[in-house]
Amino acid sequence: MKLLLTILAPAVLALSGISGAAQAQSVNRPNVVLILADDLGYTDISPFGSEINTPNIAQLAAQGLSFTNYHTAANCAPARAMLLTGVDSHRNGVPNIPESIPSEQMAYDHYQGVLSDKVVTLASILQSNGYHTYMTGKWHLGHTPSLLPSARGFDRTIAMADAGADNWEQRIFLPIYDQANWYADGAPHTLPDDFYSSEYFIDKAIEFIDSNENSQQPFFAYIPFQAVHTPVQAPKEYSDRYAGVYDEGWSVMREKRRQAAIATGVIPADSQVKVTPGTPNWTESTDEQKRYDARRMEVYAGMVDAMDTHIGRLMSHLKSIGEYENTIFIFTSDNGAASGGLNGLDGNAPLNKWLERVGYSTDYETLGEKGSWLASGKGNASISNSPLIHYKFHTNEGGLRVPLVMSGPGISQQGELTDEFTFVTDLAPTILSLVGLNDHEGNFNGEKVEPIVGSNFANYLSGTTQQIHSPSEPIGYELGGSSALFKGDYKIVINRNERNETEWHLFNIKADPGEVSDLKDEQPQLLEEMLADYEVWERTNDVLPMPENYNRGRTIFKGGFN
Known about the structure:
This protein has helices at 2-15, 20-26, 55-62, 76-85, 103-106, 122-128, 197-210, 236-239, 250-263, 287-320, 352-358, 378-384, 397-400, 427-434, 458-462, 524-540, 552-556, and strands at residues 31-37, 64-67, 70-71, 132-138, 156-160, 182-184, 187-188, 219-224, 327-333, 404-407, 416-418, 422-423, 443-444, 447-448, 474-479, 482-487, 490-495, 505-508. By secondary structure, the chain is α/β, with parallel strands linked by helices. A ten-stranded mixed beta sheet has the order 7-6-5-4-8-1-9-10-2-11, sandwiched between helices. Strands 15-16-17-18 form a four-stranded antiparallel beta sheet, with helices on one face. Strand 6 and strand 7 form a beta hairpin. Helix 7 (197-210) packs parallel to helix 10.
């Protein structure tokens, strides 16, 4: 089949209207499957020490390279924008999710929370070079016609445009939207009656791939799952697989995860861990609350398990059509686990009245099933992020460090781990290099655009270089007033908004991923050097200050919870 298509390629591509240059570029290029989980914690997959069954992701890890020191944004839209463009979030239009940006900042063009027209997506570059491009899942980068994925380089799309949505039906998940905004190929879309998000996204990805089964062109499939974003929902048979697993509580499970991560080589054997401030004390909970919280985590685990199962369906399909061996797989998460506890047994939980009014159930017996609403809560999030501290929205490792697994053509290591520092903006240029394409260098189709700032680490994947970033290269990050800067093995961090911190901290995150030992007093010169680096990065990227008294929750829930 491949030989015949190679012989016929010029004629096939000519009939499809692909240019001669694109014809030459597309022949024999690998496919790319980019899989993005939502709010998945650092040790939520089995190759990183999880008790959750993820055999298909584990298979990709066994066939490729796992990055244990990979960092992304602390929340979803900025991560997605950087992932797809290789451009810093303050230059690609998405410094924060639009729901969290205060009105004072929205007055500036680069603080709109939607993808700027001055950036080029990975999909656009691949599309212009002979790739079929598909997207099925959560978009959250804008929902006007010019901002949908169908206008940003994707041939075929199923896109949920909001921060989140129900996984069982076309329904909003928070009282911040009038409706759940779904689109197919740029037009409003109605979900089928038998919808479950993880299954549907893979169904549509397979459908899109098969629609071009006779094409010589390779494909790029971007699959950003809703799993495991709130509302946490899973088919009962998946949740029930974990019955009793979490009955000992989150401190016991967090330590089990840490020990498993040490045993698998994900974290250093001598690294320490501390309790994330604000984590509830399991032993002080009532038996009823313990039962409820354990079931929350069972459903969460079931949702991860179901996602992995459907990833396996895609892998099996690609094997059946002879495309698996010629496909680059990338699996990662947009940010660390979320701690949101907006519902629960407490009658004063913020969302309880709204959930009751709109008919969402929070009953123990049906948690995770159709019609239910669930957030995993702080304690369970501390399991997901073990051994890291804090969660989504924080610039500590629990918000920024997530698993990254890569396998396929161009990746020479198999079943190996690396603690080499990598950042989300590095993936776009690396993917381009793996498929034989050059960086656009700030000019695309004759138009000046934001240049890619990430580092291409394709040579690291092939084993021809031993380093991705120079130890002297500073990489800054900011979200909602909280900041971090990475340099070599070190990181400075402050959580002004999430933790009301007034002083920076300094950690060696390679040796101390749990951020236990603050080195600011031991290495004051390094702290000052990195603070100066941050100020340069902040000016270069036009980072705006947060308004006084900014509160993320009040900004998101402008209309209140009721």
